């Protein structure tokens, strides 16, 4: 998929670049041709204006006895008063006369051209050019070439000094088109017309609208491709976590099953001297392992909650302070059994909220049980607090355990996640407890966050809306 997508994108980029290059070359050719035609028209117009200022050659020729039109249409006739000459002689005489007149006219035009050349070389460019006319001719030529893009132009000398500019155009740009004015003249001080298109790039880009659908499809394909890859990696990660969970659960289930099986065999074995003390010990093993097995089954049932799309919540109005007192009372024995102490500071004055008693109680038990698990080898001090913040009820459960590193604090609420401890497994579990807690709190339209420092302790803060 990656290679195919990269190939498709590369092909699209290549075609887009080639098309843009072709459009730019056509644009440049049209502009160059328009500039040349503009320069030629300006030059021709100057010659016509100069000739109009002189006496028309046709009139001068007529004064000498013949018109220019008659030079191409010779009428041969026989004069009644000159009958001595033949027709051929008369024709030759007229041809010689017209040739003389043609040479005289040619000399007149040549002299006029010399006077115009010497005169034009001495005049400054601002007297030779009508800038408004130049702008009009340039617009016409660009329009004829199909270029209707805003432009700026200026006239400069060979040193680059601006003689005339439109809208304060800066002539020191690199991406400009240059055309020499009066191209037929071989003068040492030429003038140049510089043309600049401010929106040339946007014009070329707008000409590539044909590629817009393919670009949209490529982006859509990229989005789908990214989502697919993300889903694949996420599913792979979840599969690995679930496999770890199943392996861990299988190992955990084997231990109580083996213990129960061994204790049952001892009770059935007639050769075993069954004293009251031994029977009591075996019964204790059966009760403990059965409880442990029940706990593991409950964890598996918790996992089934995450697999279902909906969770049935039976919420009712309750005083959370009273619920906490009940949970603390039933949990106090377990805390004291671990040589610990539990402190309650239930200071919330508004503690009524819509909660599901069963699931919310499980949340509190989970958090307190974690406090005991991760405080082994340390002085167990469990603190439970409540207070109000605006329209919310806040519940904090704090311990003095080993704490959680910063890089793991955002992941502890993920399903199946357990803090890496290498090959040491002092605390048993499947990584479902805190994920279950997070889901239940979310169902109650609340939030949960953690504050923790390594070797100092961990504090979970629950916030739910009050009534």
Short description:
This protein has 467 residues and is α+β, with helices and mostly antiparallel strands. The chain has helices at residues 2-53, 57-63, 87-122, 125-128, 131-144, 200-206, 212-268, 276-307, 320-337, 357-373, 406-409, 433-443; strands at residues 152-157, 162-165, 177-180, 191-196, 315-319, 341-346, 352-356, 381-389, 392-398, 447-453, 457-465. It has three domains: 2-204, no CATH class; 210-306, Signal transduction histidine kinase, dimerisation/phosphotransfer (DHp) domain (Helix Hairpins), CATH 1.10.287; 314-465, 2-Layer Sandwich (Heat Shock Protein 90).
**How many strands appear in the DSSP assignment?**
11
The Cα radius of gyration reads 51 Å
Distance between the termini: 53 Å
* Low-pLDDT windows of residues: 60-79
Succession of helices and strands: HHHHHEEEEHHHEHEEHEEHHEE
The largest sheet has its strands arranged as 6-8-9-11-10
Briefly note the structural class of the backbone: alpha+beta
Arithmetic mean pLDDT: 79
Measured as a percent range, the helix fraction is: 55-70%
Give the helix tally. Answer: 12
What would you call the shape? rod-shaped
**What profile does the largest beta sheet have?**
5 strands, mixed
Total discrete domains: 3
Which strand-content bin applies to the residues?
A: 5-15%
Structure description:
The protein has 467 residues and is an alpha+beta fold. It folds into 3 domains: 2-204, no CATH class; 210-306, Helix Hairpins (Orthogonal Bundle), CATH 1.10.287.130; 314-465, Histidine kinase-like ATPase, C-terminal domain (Heat Shock Protein 90), CATH 3.30.565. The chain has 12 helices and 11 strands. The protein has helices at residues 2-53, 57-63, 87-122, 125-128, 131-144, 200-206, 212-268, 276-307, 320-337, 357-373, 406-409, 433-443; strands at residues 152-157, 162-165, 177-180, 191-196, 315-319, 341-346, 352-356, 381-389, 392-398, 447-453, 457-465. Strands 6-8-9-11-10 form a 5-stranded mixed β-sheet, covered by helices on one side. The protein has a 4-stranded antiparallel β-sheet with strand order 2-1-4-3, with helices on one face. Helix 9 (320-337) runs parallel beside helix 10. It starts with a helix and ends with a strand.
């Amino acid at each position: 998929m990656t290679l195919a997508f990269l190939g498709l994108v590369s092909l699209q980029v290549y075609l887009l670049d080639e098309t843009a290059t072709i459009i730019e070359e056509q644009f440049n050719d049209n502009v160059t041709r328009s500039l040349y035609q503009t320069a030629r028209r300006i030059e021709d117009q100057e010659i016509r204006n100069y000739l109009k200022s002189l006496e028309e050659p046709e009139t001068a020729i007529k004064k000498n006895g013949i018109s220019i039109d008659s030079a191409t249409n010779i009428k041969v006739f026989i004069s009644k008063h000159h009958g001595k000459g033949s027709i051929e002689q008369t024709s030759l005489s007229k041809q010689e006369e017209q040739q003389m007149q043609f040479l005289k006219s040619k000399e007149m035009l040549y002299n006029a051209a010399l006077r115009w050349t010497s005169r034009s070389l001495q005049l400054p460019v601002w007297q030779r050019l009508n800038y408004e006319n130049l702008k009009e001719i340039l617009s016409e030529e660009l329009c004829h070439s199909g270029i209707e893009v805003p432009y700026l132009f200026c006239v400069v000398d060979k040193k680059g000094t601006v003689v005339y500019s439109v809208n304060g155009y800066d002539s020191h740009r690199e991406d400009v088109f240059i055309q020499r004015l009066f191209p037929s003249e071989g003068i040492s001080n030429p003038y140049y017309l510089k043309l600049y298109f401010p929106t040339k790039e946007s014009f070329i880009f707008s000409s590539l609208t044909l590629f817009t659908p393919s670009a949209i499809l490529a982006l859509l394909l990229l989005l789908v491709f990214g989502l697919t890859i993300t889903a694949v990696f996420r599913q792979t990660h979840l599969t690995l976590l679930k496999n770890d969970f199943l392996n861990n659960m299988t190992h955990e289930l084997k231990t109580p099953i083996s213990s129960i099986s061994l204790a049952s065999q001892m009770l059935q074995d007639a050769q075993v001297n069954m004293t009251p003390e031994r029977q009591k010990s075996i019964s204790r093993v059966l009760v403990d392992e059965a409880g442990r097995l029940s706990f593991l089954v409950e964890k598996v049932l918790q996992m089934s909650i995450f697999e279902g799309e909906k969770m049935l919540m039976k919420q009712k109005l309750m005083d959370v302070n009273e619920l906490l007192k009940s949970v603390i009372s039933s949990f106090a024995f377990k805390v004291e059994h671990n040589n610990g102490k539990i402190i309650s500071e239930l200071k919330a004055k508004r503690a009524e909220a819509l909660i599901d008693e069963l699931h919310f109680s499980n949340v509190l038990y989970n958090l307190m049980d974690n406090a005991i698990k991760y405080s082994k080898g340390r002085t167990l001090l469990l603190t439970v607090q409540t207070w109000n913040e605006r329209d919310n009820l806040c519940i904090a459960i704090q311990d003095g355990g080993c704490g959680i590193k910063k890089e793991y604090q955002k992941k502890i609420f993920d399903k199946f996640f357990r803090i890496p401890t290498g090959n040491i497994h002092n605390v048993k579990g499947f990584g479902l407890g805190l994920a279950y807690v997070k889901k239940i709190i979310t169902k109650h339209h609340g939030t949960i966050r953690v504050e923790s420092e390594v070797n100092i302790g961990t504090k979970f803060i629950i916030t739910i809306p009050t009534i």
